[in-house]
Amino acid sequence: MGESRHEHGRAVLRRRDDGATELRVNGVFVMDDHETGSEQLLAESALAGAEGADLRVVVGGLGLGFTLRALLADPRVAHVTVAEIEPAVVAWMRDGTVPGADLLGDERVEVRVGDVRAVVAEQAVRSVDLILLDVDNGPDFLVDDDNAAVYVAAFLRTCAERLRARGELCVWSQADSPDLRDRLATVLDDVTAVRVPVVLQGRDEAYWLLKGRRPGTT
Ligand SMILES: C[S@@+](CC[C@H](N)C(=O)[O-])C[C@H]1O[C@@H](n2cnc3c(N)ncnc32)[C@H](O)[C@@H]1O
Asked: What SUPFAM superfamilies has UniProt attached to this entry (predicted)?
């Protein structure tokens, strides 16, 4: 990142004094490139349970690309549709303002600038192996109030219907959410919450991955 601050619409990218690159949306911290273990684990933990090859994945959003990079490192991944609502986030990666132009140039990657809800809804029923949602800080810590709709039963059902049998939906969250787990359990099997330890500003904390699998064998 050459200059120390870029701003477009609701998105701000800035270089902090500690050297980290930070993404803010709506004036709220979204992520940085120093503590990215949970973003990578979002991909790795879903891939660990995936069955077969030629995996088709939908991920929202792009952010700084750590989840996408972890997905593409697995040769079983045949196609990734990335939904990112902020055009600037995609543009900054394409033009090299942030690393990741190689990800967007990967022939397996299709980038859609738009709401992940619309992008998931457009997928054919029973066509996706993994849906990874990391568009906000979780149901109880929204950066964007519109994203409340990402965590409600109607959209979780839409996700479940797009999954192939045994396909997985995995949701990143700043905190565990029993309510979200309950909603996941109405449409998916094997619902679990994975605690991901992180160190934030010198303190031991945790992020969470909440996930479940589409039932059935076909
Ligand atoms: C926490 S970041 C994603 C981090 C990403 N997992 C990574 O590894 O860098 C959240 C991203 O989701 C985008 N976003 C927010 N709401 C969205 C929505 N409804 N649909 C698609 N993208 C959204 C934000 O602009 C931001 O780029």
From this structure: S-adenosyl-L-methionine-dependent methyltransferases
Rounded Cα gap, residues 164 and 215, in angstroms: 9
Cα 217 to ligand 1 centre (Å): 31
Residue 59 CA, chain-centre distance (Å), reads 5
Name the strand (E) or helix (H) holding 167: strand 163-173
Residue 209 φ/ψ region, left for φ over 0, alpha for ψ in the -120 to 50 degree band, beta for the rest: beta
Which residues are near ligand 1 (CB < 6 Å)? 25, 30-31, 39, 60-67, 83-86, 89, 115-116, 134-136, 144, 147
From first to last of the 218 residues of the chain, give the pLDDT tens digit. 656 899 999 999 999 988 899 999 989 999 999 889 999 999 999 999 998 899 999 999 999 999 999 999 999 999 999 999 999 999 999 999 999 999 999 999 999 999 999 999 999 999 999 999 999 999 999 999 999 999 999 999 999 999 999 999 999 999 999 999 999 999 999 999 999 999 887 889 999 999 999 988 76
Name the CATH superfamily housing domain 35-213. Vaccinia Virus protein VP39 (3.40.50.150)
For the CA of 86, the closest atom of ligand 1 is 25
Domain limits, the chain? 35-213
Ligand 1 geometric centre to CA of 49 (Å): 23
